[in-house]
Amino acid sequence: MILVPVWFFWDFCLCLDSDESCEGGSESSFKDALADGGSQKNNGSVPQKNGMKKHRESLPAPMFSRNSVSIWSILKKCIGLELSKITMPIVFNEPLSFLQRMTEYMEHTYLINRACSLSDPMQRMQTVAAFAVSAVASQWDRTGKPFNPLLGETYELIREEQGFRLISEQVSHHPPVSAFHAESLGGDFVFHGSIYPKLKFWGKSVEAEPKGTITLELLKHNEAYTWSNPYCCVHNIIMGKLWIEQRGKVEIVNYRTGDKCVLNFKPCGMFGKELHKVEGYIQDKSKKKHCIIYGKWTECLWSVDPQVYEAHKKLEKKGDKTLKNEENQGAENDDADDMPEVQETVSVIPGSTLLWRIDSRPPQSAMMYNFTNFAMSLNELDPGMEAVLAPTDSRFRPDIRAMENGNMNEASTEKERLEEKQRAARKERAKNDEEWSTRWFKLGTNTHTGSQDWLYTGGYFSRNYQNLPEIY
């Protein structure tokens, strides 16, 4: 019997949410670049070392075996409850902070850049849809929980070869809320949101409810797109082979044109025929369908003309009259926790256009938390970076660094020390009747949805890091 982790779905439930205004977001962020004389290469007052084109392809040490550790004694009292306050053994972690894990949304930034370059709004919507689907692809087979960010913790990432920079901050501890803001180094886009997933344990599985809204602004086209992530369900939490479903409807709205993309992340079904499948369509403001989107979030995404798609479906149904019944049974079967043995690849309809295909993972990925190449590089701390990064950056966390180096006892000790230090600081603030003050984000209103959102206030990349909290 293999006992598997539960808290890793905290990172799976990347329900990237919330957003900010197009005008306000770009103004407050791009004025940071002026501190560097308008340079678009570094966008900061100090030359950057974390925008290197060559990144590491492995971790210092392989992952520690979790097979001998039982979590049932912890979880059996939590059925039906929200899991944000449950403490899990460090062996179930992966050596990344949730702020770093959240940054993996940027792995496929080339899709945003492609959308910026397209003149046709329907093609832009297709590419944005591909980006939204690709953003959950790194969750496939990830079995480790990221470290919970400390209040005030930050993480920055600059990738000159991909043309973006990102800053994130843990803005709330109870409930845990992580805010992020990414922008093009060339001024083409702004991408932002905040994450606050709600998790519940149901005995055999854990379900993550997406909360909030993601916003992508294509500044050249004066367009803003918003969407929320699908539900994430992790099966076989207690024993058996761990497997993941993304399921539910995702709607992507273009606020300028009124175009909408509706994506259905399908439940697995009784016989596994719908495992990982995504299907949907793009319609204009008059509700006319312009294309059909289909594929798998673990593999690829395609688009095709609606008439071609319908003709193909009719032929498919003739060949398998039981398909519809199996789909209906599968959608209603919430107890199908056994991993389907057959995982079909996507059957490409003639005349389809490829929108996105997943990248191969490095050969040693299975021994290193199933990280992608992008994830493998997120905790790099190369010479010179210490002088540039904020002291609150996740790379400086001693517990994560120790775990990455294979020192599990040190990692556990440091994790407990940091958590106790955080509790003591919270008690001291309560004693003095002080409120926590965020540094780089503030709570405001999303001008597109009218909902509350954590908005980036600017200034991070001017490198003025005085009066930051000493959290490590």
Automatic annotation (TrEMBL):
PROSITE patterns: OSBP (PS01013). GO terms for cellular component: cytosol; perinuclear endoplasmic reticulum; plasma membrane. Residues 401-435 form a coiled coil. Residues 33-56, 320-340 are annotated as: Disordered. Residues 39-48 have a biased composition (Polar residues). Pfam families: Oxysterol_BP. GO terms for biological process: lipid transport. This is Oxysterol-binding protein. The gene is LOC101064389.
